[in-house]
Write a structure and sequence with these properties.
The protein is mostly beta strands and 222 residues long. It is built from 2 helices and 14 strands; from the N terminus they run H-E-E-E-E-E-E-E-E-E-E-E-E-E-E-H.
């Protein structure tokens, strides 16, 4: 019975609920934002402090003209701009009121040029890592299909700054792309979003957990 209880307690560690990995939603907001439409895509970057499993994002947004839905994706980095899509994001389409909207991530591919294994099974991705890699930049991109569809991705009142897990950061300025043109730098203030997910335990912490369990079993068996 004691052994069974110990095994069950280990199982609880692996089913933790989604946590805030990094966010700037806490910053003062404006009811205005950068456009995501069929004519223009807006992208914000984030860089993980360690490997993690992303479950989705939450964005501050508004649907001005909703002829086609807002499209949100997470892209690998390709030379400091959005590269290949590695996660589709699905959720409630922003309505006619500024609010937080949640999107769930579904992995779709193995990363783009220079990604080096941004999901399990991608080039250079060792077993046991999360679906994103620490120290690599990623991009959340908003767009739509119809040129007439217009969504606002709300931005902060002033500067940047983030909260969340140690070492995780959000980029200072969005990038934009008009139609299918090149991605352009901006000096705009950042759009607001939160990355949700779970940290991947480091091998050292898992080893410590295992050794602690062995010692516990030894003490109970005496």
């Amino acid at each position: 019975m004691k052994l069974t209880l110990f095994v069950l307690s280990l199982g609880v560690v692996g089913v933790a609920s989604a946590q805030t990995l990094v966010s700037n939603l806490h910053l003062q907001r404006q009811q205005s934002g950068w456009i995501c439409s069929g004519d223009m895509s807006t992208a914000m970057s984030f860089t993980p402090g360690f490997d993690a499993n992303i479950s989705g994002i939450t964005m501050w947004g508004f649907g001005m003209i909703r002829t086609t839905p807002l499209i949100m994706n997470i892209h690998a980095d390709d030379n400091n701009k959005p590269g290949a899509i590695i996660f589709n994001l699905s959720g409630t389409n922003p309505g006619d009121a500024w609010s937080e909207y949640n999107f769930t991530a579904t992995a779709v591919g193995g990363g783009g040029s220079g990604s080096g294994g941004d999901k399990p099974g991608g080039p250079g991705a060792p077993n046991g890592t999360g679906n994103i890699r620490g120290g690599r930049k990623y991009w959340v991109v908003g767009s739509s299909l119809a040129p007439g569809a217009i969504y606002g991705w709300g931005h902060t009142q002033g500067g940047g700054g983030e909260v969340g897990m140690s070492g995780w950061t959000i980029g200072d300025n969005p990038k934009v792309r008009h139609l299918n043109g090149a991605w352009e730098d901006t000096n705009w203030i950042p759009s607001q979003f939160r990355v949700n997910g779970q940290p991947v335990p480091e091998p050292a912490s898992m080893l410590a957990l295992g050794l602690g369990g062995i010692m516990l079993l030894r003490r109970r068996s005496r």
